[in-house]
Amino acid sequence: MSGTHVLDSLLAISRILEADQERELDRRGLTVPRTHLMWVLFHEGPQTQVHLAEQLGVTPRYVTTLVDALDATGLARREPHPTDRRAVLVDLTERGLSMMETMDAEHEQLGASLIDGLDGETVAAAIRALDHVRGRLETLVAEHEHAQKEREEW
Amino acid sequence: MSGTHVLDSLLAISRILEADQERELDRRGLTVPRTHLMWVLFHEGPQTQVHLAEQLGVTPRYVTTLVDALDATGLARREPHPTDRRAVLVDLTERGLSMMETMDAEHEQLGASLIDGLDGETVAAAIRALDHVRGRLETLVAEHEHAQKEREEW
DNA sequence: TATTGTTATACTCTATAACTATA
DNA sequence: TATAGTTATAGAGTATAACAATA
């Protein structure tokens, strides 16, 4: 009963966060996967496309498309890899970097404003519960993946 | 600081829930928006396409595409509207219905299993916090929308 | 021979604009 | 004239398969 309440609240919050994020990105002419790619560059520095594909959980082919789009809009660029002539290093441009800095600040601000008005104990309990839920979910997902592999073997 | 923790936990949980959901749907040959449409039919009964478009927050044109796909896979069907010959009523087939029943049960089970192992007080505090966060988010989104409208007026 | 990235192709998500049939 | 749904078109997300250049 209350478990369903927790799940439904989480799903509702997800939907709102996602919709708000998409609207904010749209306003800047960005899209979710492109921003995600820039986010990785922002936090981990220049990367090869294969590495980006792993980080983002998408195919290398799709990274080509994303980088093409970011390049065309002047947010990222390809540079030659210093030692491997097959590979390129993708990096943020000045404009891409300053955009990520702005978004990073907004992220912090949003986080603070979410718990604004809640007492410390409730926040602490919520953090405990969220961490627990996250752990449970990771276990469940692992089980699902296991079940799927078994299925695929037949 | 802890606000960012809450936000990051929520985002991480969203990502996991979404990825897991997509994998489960994929396994059944479904997609997220098609399932969402079936979910509405399951909970609210047969609907016109215009009404479905409103419920799902998409264009009527896209509902046509979704219903076409569900029809082609035998999960939903179009029926003539009893009084308005322009309109159709979309309804679940037997197979669509039983699929929704299965998913509904799994949803309940997932909810229960998420809080499995947490004491009642923590769960209560988490629910309080989540409801608060949701309210804050709704306020923020409304503010964003307001700001956007102002921008558009110039 | 294995790996990096790209060309070719295809399906799904989603929108806008124009149109048909009916209200 | 307004509304319900569809044809036409298009951009974005995403995948697989085949291929080129380089390791």
TrEMBL record, chains A, B:
UniProt feature coiled coil, ranges: none
Domain of life: Bacteria
PROSITE patterns: HTH_MARR_2
Residue ranges occupied by any HTH marR-type domain in the UniProt entry: 3-139
Name of this chain's protein: MarR family winged helix-turn-helix transcriptional regulator
Organism: Microbacterium insulae
